[in-house]
Amino acid sequence: MLANLDALMHGFTVALTGYHIMLMVGGVLLGILVGVLPGLGAPNGVTLMLPLTFSMDPVSAIILLTSLYWGALFGGSTTSILFNIPGEPSSVATTFDGYPMARQGRATEALTFAFLSAGFGALVGIIVITLLSSAVASFALRFGPPEYFAVYALAFASFVAFGGGAPVKTIVALCLGFGFGMVGTDTVSGSMRLTFGLDELIRGISFLVVVIGLFGLGELLLTIEEGPEFKGASGRIDPRAMLRAAARMPRYWFAMLRGSAVGVWMGITPGGPTAASFMSYGIARRTSRNRENFGKGEPEGVIAPETADHSAGTAAMLPMLSLGIPGSATAAVMLGGLMIWGLNPGPMLFIEQRDFVWGMIASMYLGNVIGVVLVLATVPLFAAMLSVSFSIIGPIIVTVCMVGAYTVAGAPFDLWLAVAFGAIGYMMKKLDYPMAPLILAMVIGDKAEDAFRQSMLSSGGSVGILWSNWLSGTLVTLAILFLLWPFLALLLGRRNAAEVAISPDAGHEETRA
Amino acid sequence: MLTRFHLELGFAALVLLIGAVGLIGSSGLDFGWGADGPQAGYFPFRVALIMIAAAALVGVQAFANRAALRRVVVAKPEGLRRVLGFGLPIIGLVIVAQWLGLYVAMALYLLAVIRWQGRRPWHTALGVALGVTIVTFLVFELWFQVPLLKGPLEIMLGLG
């Protein structure tokens, strides 16, 4: 570990030049822009900048691209909180409590919490990378299909089991999510599933289009029903509210540490930031003292997914560099960059390209600090958007949703899907169906099924392979216990299922406040 | 007047329908557990079955509680009117986008909705419609080179 600290100091001497700091600022600003726009994400930004980096030296190039990535991660939370439209997939869980806070006129507070906890999570992720870079790389090598399945199953179980709401309706939401996620080409067998001969369905139903419909359009319909103006959302810019929120941050130290731990875990075992944020939100909701307030604008509900999202995002750089496994689309584009710059990802990179690896790690410290400062500076700008009359901002949000839905796959058909899911989202909210399980099932279900079936391919159809080593065995057992918990609690008579399932006031914590 | 009872039943029926469609679709695939584990239709088939059962259960529960659920009004007429007034133009936007492209459709949509639904003066509506469309074009098409759906107008102007 001490050798790592030495290497880090060396890295700082590489990263801390005026030119590199300029690249960080530029990268973060561009990243915030693509992060805020739902149709654009970090992959677009990185792809756009890639040709510019061909003439740079590899350290400068990776600093620019990673800074852009941090900016996009920060920016994605902004629209989640203000408009209930996740700018990035990993910001979906931030909408659950961030948007209710904004509707209560606490937008500035929610954004401050989100950015500061995101910055905290990122720092934890980087510290872990710094200290454990060599050990973790060999750990990640152990990951095969059974372990992947185990990680997804655990993320899934921790969210679902901890969620509130009516059990039957949760099951319906889960099945809808699994079902929509299965449409399209089956990656294991190559056959078409549930496409009914429609060409538009061959590539499947993207969960981003579903999110834009369910959350973005569905929420707009609910807002307009209650009245023509935003309810309670204050566009007032108050720097003091930011400072007050910042001063309250230390109170949530445990939530931040827990979220970071979940995020680092999910980043290294390449579960990814999106799964990490869901898992962290689920655990926080189960264990927090304020759990009744979750879904109604609880700061911990913003802090938990944000810390996990960013610590996973930073920690995921490690498997990318040391193993060449891209955990996300962005990382895949960056990998392409590595090859073009003449570097080969793999364990040897840490030995042969010390300047590059440690320069990048050092730049991650600074890049995230710059990210927090710059994104906080944009809060007044975005908060001011809330003061624009809904009769103007509402239709603009609709067009942003439509552009976002189209850019996912460049398919006109997806516009129809988004509208259909907007209507479904409106009805689901009206009937207290929980939305989060649907999204989670779409995100993780597909990957989990692939990993499961790949494991079965190698074991000849025997489920025993999941318990063939301590790692996947522990995770799978834990996941099953998590999943069974509500049923055990139910058997013990903690609540009456039928009553909870149907009474109009039950399960409200899942919906808006 | 839309009551909770009717909406519960309606949505359960929709889920039932989706489940039935899924069942038909997956029964055409191999839904067994072969020598190499679950086949392509294994999970879709079972998910569809569970979905149908759960939807039926929601329906039964709603029916059992119909007296209480009938008293709950889901949406008041004026609220529902606002929802339709906001939702129908979105459908219009999608229809127009299919043959005139997204840019023209969003400009027309913004102009119409802000002018007639928001009752804003013409210059506001026109300004927002053109401004948003042009900014979208610059950011997506030129800067990030993400092409959006284009129609005959863009081709005529030589932008397609």
Automatic annotation (TrEMBL), chain A:
InterPro entries: DUF112_TM (IPR002823). Pfam families: TctA. Residues 21-440 form the DUF112 domain. It comes from the Bacteria. The chain crosses the membrane at residues 20-40, 61-83, 110-137, 149-181, 201-222, 323-344, 356-376, 382-406, 470-492. Keywords: Membrane, Transmembrane, Transmembrane helix. PANTHER family: BLR4373 PROTEIN, TRICARBOXYLIC TRANSPORT PROTEIN. This is Tripartite tricarboxylate transporter permease. The lineage of its organism: Bacteria, Pseudomonadati, Pseudomonadota, Alphaproteobacteria, Acetobacterales.
Automatic annotation (TrEMBL), chain B:
Pfam families: TctB. The chain crosses the membrane at residues 7-25, 45-64, 84-112, 124-144. The keyword Heme does not apply. It comes from the Bacteria. The keyword Ribonucleoprotein does not apply. Residues 11-148 form the DUF1468 domain. This is Tripartite tricarboxylate transporter TctB family protein.
